[in-house]
Design a protein that fits this description.
single chain, 2 domains, two-stranded antiparallel sheet, 2 strands
């Protein structure tokens, strides 16, 4: 089933390339690209992406993006490839640090730090201890 869908999706770009090649061979003078060819290019770009489509069809990628916006096709097709990066939660425990201080009177201060703050606390501690030595 997936093979049929892939062939159909690849066929959109292949048909667009055939039509663009035919148009380039048969046109008599320089002129704008016909609307039906732009529609085919936009359809291919929603599936394959702007860069791949513009390279394969020999189009300016900026113009292709503009055509996509004017035709309201700014997002890729629903079944197109998607990429979502998720943080890996199994990377290990979050570093944490507890700082405790007591003055001559007996008052105490306790600070519990997690994640990136632990690095800053360690640097601060080194600075303070090296100043007293």
């Amino acid at each position: 089933m997936e093979t049929k869908r892939t062939v159909a999706r690849d066929g959109v770009l292949a048909r667009a390339k055939q039509q663009f090649d035919r148009w380039r061979r048969t046109r008599r003078r320089q002129g704008p690209i016909p609307a039906e060819l732009w529609h085919m290019a936009v359809e291919a770009a929603t599936i394959h992406g702007v860069h791949a489509t513009s390279r394969r069809l020999r189009l300016n990628s900026t113009q292709l993006k503009q055509q996509m916006q004017s035709l309201g096709k700014t997002e890729a097709a629903q079944d197109g490839p998607r990429f979502v990066e998720l943080p890996w939660l199994g990377a290990g425990p979050v570093p944490e640090c507890i700082l405790e201080a007591e003055d001559q009177v007996g008052r105490k201060l306790r600070i519990h730090l997690k994640a990136a703050a632990t690095t800053q606390a360690a640097l601060l501690g080194r600075m303070l201890w090296s100043a007293y030595r």
